[in-house]
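Internal tracking record. Fields below are filled automatically when a chain is submitted to the structure queue. Please do not edit lines marked as system-generated. If the sequence contains nonstandard residues, flag them in the REMARKS field before resubmitting.
Queue: standard
Priority: normal
Entity type: single polypeptide chain
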Amino acid sequence: MKINLYYLIILSIFCTFNVTYGYETSKLSDLKTSQIELFSDTTNTSNLLKNLEYVSGLEINSNHEDFGGLSGLLIDNNFEFTAIGDQGIWINGKLVFNDNNELLSISNAKLGYLKNQKNIYLIQSGKSFNDAESVELFNGKFIVSFERKHRILSYDKIDGIPDLLYDKINLLDLPNNGGIEAMTSLKDNSLIFISEDLVTSDEKIVGFRLHKNKLSKIFLKKSGAFKPTDLSKLPSGDILMLERSYTPIKGARARISLIKYQDIIKNNLITPIYLDTIAPPMIVDNFEGISSIKSNNGGYYIFILSDDNFNFIQKTILLQFHWDGSLN
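SYSTEM-GENERATED OUTPUT FOLLOWS
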């Protein structure tokens, strides 16, 4: 019996090591950033932006085999950021700025792997379980939304073991690869999340508001081929919405809009206020993450992050804009 128990212990240790080996948190020491311009030439195209002012931008690269596919972005007031990716990864680090508050680089970047409630790395469970799309803070915890196997997980720490935030997400009839792309908290401590592809027959985008563990539907006015990909709460209580669009004729585009808090609470149909569209001849990619911080000089800095889909012709890009809060 002692020998059998001995081998059982050794086997258990080996299995645990085998399951976790290769998924430890890694410092991205090879992470490289290069500054990019919004426009590819020197033509005067400033009139293409109506409300936003371009500040800076980075192209981000790493040789880590799981770097890429970044779909959600969260930046705090200390310029620490957290991003999640659609293969069940997370990346955090710190944004570095110059004296003019222009984004220069990223420091102390790390990459790790999201876990499920059983302390198993999601990347080991396949695409149906690891397709993370949005990350936000809610009640002091990181919450992450997932497509395919639709759910929202709540993490005390992004590298920890999560709890299920709400147990009825899987009953919402969300499209397989068009689920909860956009998510943020509201100032009344409720949570709003919007489907990418759940659209009514009369062209309304379907979203949901979770308040005191009760779920209600919200509807947004749809515009063209644009689909919501992320949300960011402003100190006022209003929220910013990022959308993306791709058509063979117009190519890739991204749009940033404002949604008033009162519209969410009072109106049956929310009509976003369009701030600006990022489209050629601007640098544009598959932008899926948005976050914002208040500027010391007034207004807000808005950051949008692209998902390269692990496609060699696409890039991981982080763009920084300034919005003074007015509407033109």
